[in-house]
Structure prediction request, 686 residues.
Amino acid sequence: MTQHPLTQSLGALKGIGPKLVERLGDMGLHTVEDMLFHFPLRYQDRTRITPIAGLQDGLDAVVSGEIRMANVVPGRRRALVLKIDDGTGVLTVRFFHFRQAQVQQLKPGRPINVFGQARWSVNGPDMVHPEYRVDDNSQLLEEALTPLYPTVEGIGQSIWRKLTDQALALLNQSPPEDLLKDLQHPFTLVDALYYLHRPPASAPVAQIREWQHPAQLRLALEELVAHQLSLQLLRAEEKSYKAPAINDRNSRVASFLATLPFEPTGAQQRVSTDIAKDMAATSPMLRLVQGDVGSGKTLVAAIAALRAIDAGYQVALMAPTELLAEQHLRNFNHWFGPLSVNICWLSGKVKGKARVEALSTIESGTAQLVIGTHALFQEGVKFKGLALVIVDEQHRFGVHQRLALTQKSGDNAMPHQLVLTATPIPRTLSMLAYADLDCSVIDELPPGRTPIKTSLIDSNRRPEVIQRVASACREGRQAYWVCTLIDESEHLDAQAAQVVAEQLQSAMPDVSVGLIHGRLSSNDKEAVMQRFKSGDIALLVATTVIEVGVDVPNASLMIIENPERLGLAQLHQLRGRVGRGATASFCLLLYQSPLGQNSRARLNVMRESNDGFFIAEEDLRLRGPGELLGTRQTGMMTFRVAQLPEHDDLLDEACAIASAIANEGSDRMNQLVQRWTADRQAFARV
Ligand code: ADP
Ligand code: MG
Prediction:
């Protein structure tokens, strides 16, 4: 059988050597088909000549005229300056880097074509370092819009154009199969590919810029279908492993619940039932539990953990930060201590002899519940009978990290997986990011919570706020004062928090002020948290380390400095540290004026809503998906054509098509995944 021309290696194209093949390979481009699915980021319009009088500020344009004046202007930035006249106006062109040959070449009286970005100033339009041709008026003009491809250093646009020209020629000769041909769509796959690589001069540039052109929609739909299918394949693969079926014969869940001072909410019970059903099966559970801040996800995790432990297995509980992992450790010690569950602590900071000991209790199976951070799935951690992995606050982990931990249980077996998300995820995003997981929602808060009242306050009213905090503390209430990230560095952050803590302490000498940040040792953090919990510290100055999970119900006041620096989801998490008890809670967002329009809109969302789902939707709308999921997951969320939120409304259709294709059991599924996500799949498995 001869090879289809589009599946040939890129090396088969003209003008491409082994070095370039390798570099393109690094970008995930291996075959001619891959080249066709590498789309331009934007386009330049070189299809027409723009009269100088009609140049628009900031837009690229081709101008054709005659050189009227050419001078080398001395000064701090020596420049070769041309005046070009086309009868409608005069364009100034400046070259700050130029050779003597150019000075010779660019003489008054010669016809010239330039292409570049026009800028308007008081002296009329100008261009800096445009491309140019002298004496020939046609060369800069092209028939189609000029595509600009995403690239890396050293691969110029002309190379991309040459390669895609050849790929498009091959596409014409031997079109690939249209895998969605049953779709009633104005564009076929081939037409759409052609259109996006070489849009005709008449193309509606604005529509393309907004990602709404039918050719883009056609390809975006196919890409979303392929993405859904790849997650379904991933899921099918995970589900094909064996997992221990966990029965309730020896379960002490009922007696554990009887020791608690409260009853599980209806939502907690419902979700626990979902989980129990999954864990009773012989294929791994893949379940995501979404629940707003304070909805009681930890209890749901504890119930699942106890089931697995009582059935004779090990459980791993992983948290994204040391502080949160430590809090889980405290919590589970408190809950499971009376049941004599053997709990093992493992974080990156457990070193030397302690580490060796921890690892050996895990390997021997003595440790029934292992709590920790990422260190849990580093090399050298071997479990004896791991049946359940709980990942708390999933939005901070990537999919591959989750998978890495699941590899820990040996060859053909995989533990059950329970993922708890702190941030409620907008529907569109969860459809994209978690389509391989089943989802349960804890849609009810424990009874007796009063909604948090949030206000925006200009930071010039700081002294007033300090007075308010001081008097609240004197009345026996407790408060957080959160200093937001100043820098990427934990060190500077800690320093800044230290300074604030000292200021506040001297402003309210009779109030006991504590300080917590990421640079403290585990023991010191623990000690501070204990003192805050016991009421010994009234005001806790903190960095965003307290963002997730920290639970001190008596704290009812939170000040967040410079909230405009944080995402809404993060603010919602932080704010969720208060409002956990019965007293009315307040959150004061102490912003730095002047506040931009977008920042004000975002902070207003916080003032108006306590609903994590609503806030997450607004966050997505105002900031885009990458920001919301955090950098760890953005890699997974970048598509070639599909855009969020522009293509949100394609998702339902994409899901429906994907299910239909998955059900027909043909090879289309694999072909689509291969075409669109081959490389990403490999990445997800690292
Ligand atoms: P999150 O979902 O944000 O992780 P937590 O699990 O930390 O929430 O629970 C928040 C607080 O609510 C904790 O103090 C927990 O003990 C308490 N809690 C959990 N479930 C209930 C319940 N059913 N009734 C009363 N309080 C509860
Ligand atoms: Mg939690």
About this structure: The radius of gyration is 31 Å.
